[in-house]
Amino acid sequence: DIELLGTKLQEFATQAEEGAATEEAVRRSAADIADLQDQVQQLNGDADAKTSGLLEQVGALLQTTAELSEKLDGCAEKEEVLRLGARVDGGLDALAVRLETDRWVRDGVDKVADNITNQFIKLLDERSSKVEARVEACEKSLADPK
């Protein structure tokens, strides 16, 4: 019986050692679980902070979109802009044609005026020559009393 009692004592000692090891493992597991819970809480806090930041950014983006939409409503439609562009182009073309026509007419008028002036001067020269010839003839006839 003493042997049996010794064996039982050894079994109890072994079980006690195993129980102590199990308790130590449970304690370590509990500490690891607590650390993991802290990390999860920290990650949740970070995620909440980022989420609130993103919500603020989305709100600002929505406000900017609304402002741009209001500005866009105040802008002219594409057809109106195209019509205005065509009208401006037509006006500029008409102005260019008018300026070119005016220059061409002035050049023509200047040429005609130059020709008239030249013809008038030529006529004056011819008349002046004839008058000089008559004056000379008169002077000769007055100088020669026959």
Structure notes:
Helices cover 95% and strands 0% of the residues. The protein is mainly alpha-helical and 146 residues long. It folds into 2 domains: 1-75; 77-146. The longest helix is centred in the N-terminal third of the chain and has 73 residues, at 2-74. The termini are far apart. The model has no long low-confidence stretch (mean pLDDT 90).
Number of helices: 2
| Uncertain ranges | none
Class per helix and strand makeup:
mainly alpha
Portion in strands: under 5%
Rg, nearest Å: 59 Å
Q: What is the CA–CA distance across the termini?
A: 203 Å
Please give a quick description of this structure.
This protein is mostly helical and 146 residues long. 95% of the residues lie in helices and 0% in strands.
